[in-house]
Write a structure and sequence with these properties.
Glucose Permease (Domain IIA), 2 helices, 14 strands, 149 residues, globular, three-stranded antiparallel β-sheet
Length: 149
């Protein structure tokens, strides 16, 4: 069982509430989303593993069970071309749960006209392989979002 924890603080809202049809329809995979607190901070790794994909606006960490977890910082933030995001690790790095991966400012994302909502997705998973899915309530960085069989 992989435990996936919150990469940042905010309010859990669930994927159906994400203002993007691909995430809202769980086409990328099942999971949840966080409406982040509006202050500069760091998005941290939600699992122990290896950074297999790294962009200013999104990263994927694969754990020892082969589970890949996508953290997407905001919606349509790829259009910001990295502005307002600072990478703190490199692709291929081994990271631990809670280790800072990207520094960003959700308020700046919102001011640029993008949604700061952050999907946290279990890649190549099925909805029934997830348990204890958090889809509401306040979450602190490191709180459990879901378990993954």
């Amino acid at each position: 069982m992989t435990i996936v924890t919150a990469p940042l603080a905010g309010r859990a809202i669930g994927l159906p509430a994400v203002p993007d049809p691909v995430f809202a329809g769980a086409m990328v995979g099942p999971g949840t989303a966080i409406d982040p607190v509006r202050e500069p901070g760091e998005a941290v790794s939600p699992v122990d593993g290896v950074v297999v994909s790294l962009h200013p606006h999104a990263f994927v960490v694969v754990d020892s069970d082969g589970h890949g977890v996508l953290t997407h910082l905001g919606i349509d933030t790829v259009q910001l071309n990295g502005e307002g995001f600072e990478l703190l690790v490199n692709k291929g790095d081994t990271v631990t749960r809670g280790q800072a991966v990207v520094r960003w400012d959700p308020s700046a994302v919102e001011e640029a006209g993008k949604s700061p909502i952050c999907p946290v997705v279990a890649l190549e998973a099925t909805a029934d392989s997830l348990s204890d899915l958090r889809e509401d309530g306040d979450v602190k960085t490191g709180d459990t979002l879901f378990g993954w069989q």
